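fyi for ur records
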Amino acid sequence: MRRFTLWSIAVLTLAVATKFSCAESALAVLGKDYAFPNRVEGLPAKLSDFPGFQINSFVTGDGVKLTYWEAGTGKPLIFLPGWTSNGAEYINVMYLLSQHYHVYVLDHRNQGLSQRVDYGNRIARFATDFKEFVDQLGLRSFDVCGHSMGSSVLSSYIDQYGSGAIHKAAFVDEPISITSRPWWTLDEKKQYGVLVANPADLVRMGTQFLMPQATAPNKADGPRFSNTGQSTPAFENSVGFASQVIKNDPAYMLKVLYDHGANDWHDVIFQKIHMPVAIFSGDISPNLASQQWAHSVLKGSTFYVFSKQEGGDHFLVFRNPAKFAHDLGEFLVE
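which gave:
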């Protein structure tokens, strides 16, 4: 009996190991230290100043190895990055919030350090990846923050699996629907944050953003992919770090963009969000009107609007990590 028990434990341990890799420090995984170009008070000067920063991975049900970045102890707080984004860009936010939370950033398939694959490139599948990640961590309750496309992934998760496990949720600057519907009025298009007429236009914009040599420049591409705000030392540090450790493949990142543009989440906001919610946007973000509408619909939601001076454009998370971490932490407090 004892031999059978030991054998069972060994099999279980092996099964878990195939799903999750052993935790390793980011320094060990990346193989070298990194010195940030700007000294910012309260933030690390180099990678080795963040000793609890880890890079781990797990395998999804459809066989894709996804990377996640992890730091801190305490209540779990999960970040879902936007399109093209990854955990490396969150290093400043993670450093600040890991003092009070167990922080995770999940790299979507085809982004960051996660595997490049030709299948599952739908927001609904990204949401299932997120659910599998949460389930395999064994989290029964967690806080979550979606930025840009990550907000769409979060909306899809709620649509498919409900909000029962979510303690509190934050949505950062994502339109309710990027593309229009023929029956919407002009007011509805503004409320939902419509940016382009159809998903194909979004793909064209994304292609121009990632591979400008592939298409002719077009001023009508709009502000969605532009750097509308002023850069900041913290922003330069995180983006510079990401550019050194992440090797993006534009062809793979573009695969999800059509489906991303085709989704409309206004019914989810109306009917399925039941947890406390925070919404973040900025004075110079092209998505401000849609975030105002979401705040008006989600009664009791908390609305944070960053000014231009505070880095209040689509990239407010990275332009002003200190304010973002403070405001998010303020919202998450019981």
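Residues 195 and 330 are 31 Å apart (CA to CA). thats all i got for now
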